Write the structure tokens for this entry.
Amino acid sequence: MRDVVIIGVGQTRVEEHWGKSLRHMAHDAVMAAMKDAGIETADALYVGNMLSGELGGQEHVGALVADFIGLRGIEAMKVEAACASGAAALRVGMFAVASGIHDVVMVCGVEKMTDAVGDEVTSGLATAADQEYEVSQGISFVGLNALLMRRYMHQFDVKHEHFAGFAVNAHKNGANNPNAMFQSPIKAETYLRASMIADPINLMDSSPVCDGAACVILAPADGYRARAKAHILASAVATDSLAIHDRRDPLTLDAVALSSQKAYAQARITPTDVDLFEVHDAFTIMAALSLEAAGFAPRGRGVCMAVDNEIGIEGRLPISTMGGLKSRGHPVGATGVYQIVEVVAQLTGQAGKNQVQGARIGMAQNIGGSGATVITHILGGV
Amino acid sequence: MRDVVIIGVGQTRVEEHWGKSLRHMAHDAVMAAMKDAGIETADALYVGNMLSGELGGQEHVGALVADFIGLRGIEAMKVEAACASGAAALRVGMFAVASGIHDVVMVCGVEKMTDAVGDEVTSGLATAADQEYEVSQGISFVGLNALLMRRYMHQFDVKHEHFAGFAVNAHKNGANNPNAMFQSPIKAETYLRASMIADPINLMDSSPVCDGAACVILAPADGYRARAKAHILASAVATDSLAIHDRRDPLTLDAVALSSQKAYAQARITPTDVDLFEVHDAFTIMAALSLEAAGFAPRGRGVCMAVDNEIGIEGRLPISTMGGLKSRGHPVGATGVYQIVEVVAQLTGQAGKNQVQGARIGMAQNIGGSGATVITHILGGV
């Protein structure tokens, strides 16, 4: 297989894009990435998207976006793995380049969530869980995560306030990211006073409903080395049961562990080599569980990394360095591509006030469902 | 890139599977294919599916099916390109093997359409068309195809009855396929008397709403040559605008032409070398237009191949040899994989009464929307 590099990145700001449809947002992100890469065409387009059908009445967004960006005719398709759709599309793009079948490919994550009403979004997000054995019982996706958080607090004798550091860190970093949805820092008191959504998950534990699109351009290292912004050192997918009750232990994300271990092996590194980690902090509980299963904290102690502020830009392991899902926002099918765009910013020294000094190795982990699909990418600087 | 072969195939009968959910159907097809291939595990699973979210409230079917077939943990994701989702998943599987990243991968197309009510299915299928510029005007997917058929009849001075041969041929072949939804031959009079759906498309011009799952197992030629049932000689994707009114000519399927030409070039063949063609006959008009754009008939004369019965098993170009979308059935996201399963049956001499004698090269073409995504695979016998 050929080594694959990233030669361009682009993004729209994550926000409520009332004035733009899905195709317009994708267009803006792709055009920015093509300009960044200095290219005017590409061989193929892989779109990461989860909810265009449910919320927009529009499947078939691969060909739709390919046409709208002016590249009618090129290969295009959509890839879906719930909230891990963005990273899944990246993986398909990497396959296409690694195989030698294509040279320059575009990977665009896009999601348009705010044109729908709340119930539709809640139902749409629940399609990431097991419809027949979880959702049909009446539980929402945030409800499932609330059960996990409650169980975690009980089993490890953790208080809700201990999670505050995840939200504070995310908003602190988001404040310096012009593409973040929320650009205001919050205090711990803000977290403690936030409205409850699904006890114990409150508004500050939870990522927002939003719109956004991000794009990365891939090419083979041979022939594009001089234009490379980052190398893909590892790409690994692992799965678990959708239904949490089917797992051997609800508080151990086996797919995070497997995906991370495969990625470390591919990149020939250990967790201590990771300079920053774009964690899938859709909920604070997912950040804690991911840190544990990925090997950064012992079981039941992931939350301590927030308490001890090991996760800040100058901490032991900076996470959510551009705001994460909590503050940059979580346009679900686009998130995995935003994470890659942000790791590239860190590795190229373009992360501004949030720059992790000397960052050489960045990891991004995109999760579908409550840990049922986990896709880990490790990037290296040039 | 590595050459890719097919080492196993499996399918469920296409029908109204009231007793089986999506995951059960996928399970049955995958198990049959694994048994056929003589394997008990695989590196990855790529699921072709279009409407699980809209009709079943279930996205994330990659991980769902991986778990349900007993392979929790393996890489899995869903690939979507409207009714071309099955072939799109095959293409991703081929990437994975060709790149050397995976060895044995499973590609499963699955669709569950009959648990939904009619309006939901109509709305779901319309997500293949342009939501903002076609569907929002009130037209259905069959309505769009009816406009194409009417225009074709007008422009080329063709009568509705001239299309009868496509339906008669499909049902004749389906009658000998135990996995077909409809296993009864029809007469031309049946076609002429069929209920009108969207004038001029009647019930016999149109493929049915149905459930089904099919699976193929891929592996690299090197190491699996002895177990190969067929070689993938070509795999090509091309796109067009979703909206028919955006095209230079509504009666020329540019993406069919481009996808076919790329496939012929890859396989180093010409159309005359094709021994059988699994055409995307979702509607009889699509069969006619596809035959023209793929180079088997001059413009405006595709329908003549039905009139002159050149499309039968012993004709110049056998099409829909196991019943096609019309008679085998069109469980939308699964269809592209069924086509491959049927080409493999022909190339291995297992097509029973429908065997195309001496078949060495088979072509399958899976179309999303009214020609907006076209994926062509050419297989060669071993």
The domain at 4-117+210-227 of chain B is CATH 3.40.47.10 (Peroxisomal Thiolase; Chain A, domain 1). Chain B has two domains: 4-117+210-227, 125-207+232-381. The mean pLDDT of chain B is 98.
